[in-house]
Amino acid sequence: MNESIDLLLNHRSVRQFEDRPLTREQKETIVSCAQAASTSSFIQAYSIIGVTDKEKKRKLAELAGGQAYVEENGHFFVFCADLHRHEMIGSMENKNVVPSIESTEKFMVALIDTALAAQNAAIAAESMSLGICYIGGIRNKLEDVCELLQIPSRVLPLFGLAVGYPAEMTEKKPRLPINHIYHENEYRQNEEEDQEQLEMYNQIISDYYLERTKGMRNDTWTSQMATMLEKQSRMYMKEFVKKIGMDRI
Amino acid sequence: MNESIDLLLNHRSVRQFEDRPLTREQKETIVSCAQAASTSSFIQAYSIIGVTDKEKKRKLAELAGGQAYVEENGHFFVFCADLHRHEMIGSMENKNVVPSIESTEKFMVALIDTALAAQNAAIAAESMSLGICYIGGIRNKLEDVCELLQIPSRVLPLFGLAVGYPAEMTEKKPRLPINHIYHENEYRQNEEEDQEQLEMYNQIISDYYLERTKGMRNDTWTSQMATMLEKQSRMYMKEFVKKIGMDRI
Are residues A47 and A98 both part of a single domain? Predict the structure, then answer.
């Protein structure tokens, strides 16, 4: 065990921040760490938009579903998969890159690149005793988010990252059993074993919620997942992504 | 600056490893750190397959394009976006989750979840003085990779992660200028400024290659990108992803 592993294992999302903005140096360190992450074939297919304008933050919070911590934090980053600059590079270098950047493969590459960078940003922030929360809610209304942040085509805002000085203590949420997530040499398909593991995990999660809510919430992981997934959300995504010129071919 | 930031900023990919396998404890620490990453709505939409079988590693290396370090390393992880268990959960809980898990939105969620976990794994490994290299090459022939690792539908291998004791010293690769990647309040669209930044960066990359190859390689970032993107690669991806039941609607 070392300091970094300790940091990784102790992650918890923070949803309440002090009213204290990050310094320019803190922001630059976080972005530099994001950029230091691995990138597929050196493609660097992302952009990061820091939002400081109060009115824009208020609007973003509203679009993301009304969470106060989108508006109230030390800094708010929006991580975007970005193949816009690569289209520009195609013109600069006089090469037809369009089929490539419209492919599902490069869509995946851009998403992965962006997420690797973001996770580095999250860890950098946490290492400075800041708290973080990923905000998938910005995908509720991407058309409006893109207009608000003047985002061009081939750029897809994936999630926000709220960062700041924690104003609450939160608990670590137990993860799936390691042997449910981790396989060796082949994907283990054993329905009986899987169900046993899930039931064991359900018990852990149920205890976690009961304790955390003083008996008010009784929920299992599988029921939580099934309820969430039964509801079809953001079903406009396929059309939207295609419209902005990604995942087309 | 703290120890973790130092670690993040000093990342470089390692492509030559000592012949010394990771211990069970090292592997478990790496996977536990992966699991500790943020996950969208707690969905945990990934699986990790460790490959230890020599013949399977040899085959994977071949499929990935013949890189020796896929075969020769301390351990080889395959990170998979996974909505297979969520389909199973739907049946367990008697809820129709299929439209949800076939949506582009959940495809994105699964990719992002997997990448966040993988980056935690990479950092955990590096914090233990191990080296890492992401292997996108496994996407060359996913049909074969899925067969080799007996991967069911709704599970998409995204990349490998080779981990081990470094047998080479590599250099940090300079990233795009921070003000090219980072915007405030709106996506800055200024073609002239962008081109200036790219030309400045081209000079940095050109110097980097010249020095590293003792004058043998003279290349700029934009020409490298345009050449790579002009070539259409893995164009089967859209059909493949659809076939396994993802990114369909």
Answer: yes
